[in-house]
Input
Amino acid sequence: YMGAKTTIAPGDRIKILFQVSTTRQFSFKEAIGLGHSIIKTDGIAGLWRGNSATLARVIPHAAVAYSSFDRYERFLKKVMQVSSNGDEKGREVLIRFLAGYAAGATGTLVAYPLDMMRARMAVNTQASSGPYKVGYISMFRETIAQRGLLSLYHGLGPTLIGIIPYAGISFATFETLKTMIKSYHDLAEHESIPHYERMVAGGVAGLIAQSATYPLDIVRRRMQVHGLGEHKIKYESLFQAIRHIRDTEGILG
Output
């Protein structure tokens, strides 16, 4: 997983730069041009700028989210009095959805400051206006000094709201697909599902969840980078941010 994150890090940095820009319109030509610009100003390593925060975030987020999912699921089954014999599939899907949201929210609360640093490091380049910070410690210090300790959680609101469809749909879809695969192959347990089928199920779940929450991801990234270089617009709330983006950049913004 961490190797995959490192592999796609250049594309992820370019994606963030498009997300936070009010003037750039995405196209493959523009993306390639932006990549060349990063290499010119920051060197080839600049394409991976901010990736260390991503990798540092992966461990606590994944550990907390996945370890807490089963606990939330058991708790909700007990509260909603749902048995494990498969007779209440509709309620089981709802429980997976709610447990997925709770697990994703818990992991996000633990690792959110690192996610913010990933975004701020990604947009802070030698070519941007404003001070150029070369390390995470200096970026943390600057952010806290200028905006206070709670600013490390700026943008948490849309992130947690986004987890409702993202983590909920992702977990619920993945677990439901695993149940369908288990039933189709007449397997005794989920652990017997072939790895490639697990990968396909995970990919489908992630694609659906990411598509559903992408607008909230735009808002989150813009709130995270407020005050850096050209990013002067301060979004006070999720709905104010959505209205401003819609009014200034159109619904496709």
Summary: The radius of gyration is 20 Å. The CA atoms of residues 69 and 158 lie 21 Å apart. The chain has nine helices and no strands. Residues 89-123 form the longest helix (35 residues).
